[in-house]
Amino acid sequence: MLNMIKRPARWLLLVLLLASACTSAPIAETPETPVPSSPTPPPATDPPPSTPTSEPTAYPTLTPTATLAPMGEVQPVTGDYAYLGDKDEMALGFNLNSGGSVGSLFWQGGELVDDSDNGRFIQISPYDGDDIYEAVGNDPYGNFGWNPLQSGSKAPMTNPVGGTILEFRRTEDTMYIKALAKEWGKLDQDSDTIYEVWAFLREGYFEVHVRATHIGTEYHITGSVEFPAAYFEFDLRDEYSYLGAAPFTGELLEELHYVAAPGELPGDPSCPSVIPTENWAAFARPDQTGLILAVPPQKYLSAYWAVCLLYDSPQVGYISPLAFFDFAPGDTREMTYYLIPGPIAEGRKIVYDLIPHTIWSFNLDTLEGWQTESTPASVADGVVVLALSPDNPLTSRPALNIQGRTAPTVSMRARVPEGEAMVCLEYLTLSESDWNPDRSACLTIAGDEFAKSDFNVGTLASWNENVITQLRLTAPEATQLELDSLIVNKTGHAWEFDSEADIFNWNALYNLKPLRVESGNLVLESLGDDPYLSLPANLAIDAATMPQIEIRMSVSAGHSAQVFFATGTDLDFIEEKSLVFEINADGQYHTYTLDMSTVDTWQGTVDQLRLDPTDAPGTVEVEYIRIR
After folding, report:
1. Are 493 and 608 in contact (CB under 8 A)?
2. Tens digit of pLDDT for each residue in 239-252?
3. Alpha-carbon distances of 411 from 279, 358, 425, 440, 480, rounded to whole Å
4. Which of 108, 153, 314, 593 has CA 20 to 30 A from 469's CA?
5. CATH no. for residue 104?
6. Domain tally for the chain?
7. Cβ(395)–Cβ(368) under 8 Å?
8. Domain carrying residue 458
């Protein structure tokens, strides 16, 4: 295909940096990002009938570590595609001529992924924030920069060169591929990056892990990363997601209408960045069957996604979550994503099972990641029914990462068919990974009507002083329980930086070395007079009830710091939505308490924060950031 549309994600980085620039006066006005309402999806042909989920899909494998090993026996690299699954039902395809990249996904015999050139497929696409080399030939996108792709290069355009597969393994339900990347903008140049891909065939979806390893000698500064970039088959033209303020409550799907105008790319006015608050987006056919890309919260990932039809002939659907990271020699960077084919409404149920969240409504008739140990639970009409006992607790999925001090109660709306019953909420923390009744709060439920009760976990030191990773309900004596909802009640937000989990979604955007946690502090190294990091992470702060931001930090140099904020209807960080405060740059820890109610624009719902910790080169160590 001669009309290549792969292009650097540098446009997204520039959009964010320009919208976030810190100046002494408001920045130039940029086009407002429309946030669609939640319309009823258009009429569609009936999807296949569905059965309410009695049990959630199996827990996914957690994001891999450097110790994750290849799986299966070594296989010869032969043919064009290797498939995981059954092509007549559901199968994920890896193009062996293009570095083993994901370039095909069949569902009920129909193709869902576009692989028209090496710049498409579904793959991570990183960039160096300060690297440019001259374009090769008649490149419509001009000069390029470091961009290692597993799939290969774009030139020569009539015969692109694929990445080199170094190792290929498989089992019946797993695939492992290791490949040396090519530089996208070069004719045939090996890059300094090796990609490893682990793929798992799950019930109704695919789980994919990717690890990138820097084997070269150059340091690539923080840049934007398509995390991953996904391109969809041409007949999938309808866009779906959920961008609203009540994620994981089963609100109506939103049909999006973003189409890049001729000459425009994602990040331009016709294709603005959006924030999918349930961490997924999809393209579908008119019958609302298609493919969901879901990406759980993880290190380096921001809240911004590109979701639009790109202008081409024919148009092609494109989804890309945006991440930020640097890449030093010897570094590894890892990510996880899920591909869920089929009816979008049914796939959204699987999303609720896979993506960690802390409001469980069960309104989609799925257990939302909760599991029993012996006797299965069932769910119908938004109510979970189970036999709760010491031997059959109901356990949430892991990696909830709740800051205990910000969540003093957990509300449960439930009933027992007759009499009364005691129900206990137990929890695990980052430092305590065994279930222990000493870490629990209990209450008694009485009556056959649904009623709300609160577990007062805020009275427990082990809750308040820790990050909570997992919850479970149990009962001292066997009882039949009907559970309508479970909600972790957050009275604020806190980042204590006791572990790297607290820097998920915090992104070093400018004049900062990569973020790191050391001895319970976030360490920032400022490289100039305008460093800033952001947290674009669906905070949903009620400005009226949470007007106070408390920051405890030490600063080695500078005179002032600044906090910016943004809302779902106005994503720009500008002076009118900020507060400047003086800092004591003596290298000692000081607590700065900011009254945001003194800023006229601190109103409504605040979704994102940006911190400019100093105005000079130096070191900053942040002990905590709390919003009360």
Report:
1. no
2. 999 998 899 999 99
3. 24, 11, 10, 14, 19
4. 593
5. 2.70.98
6. 3
7. no
8. 359-489
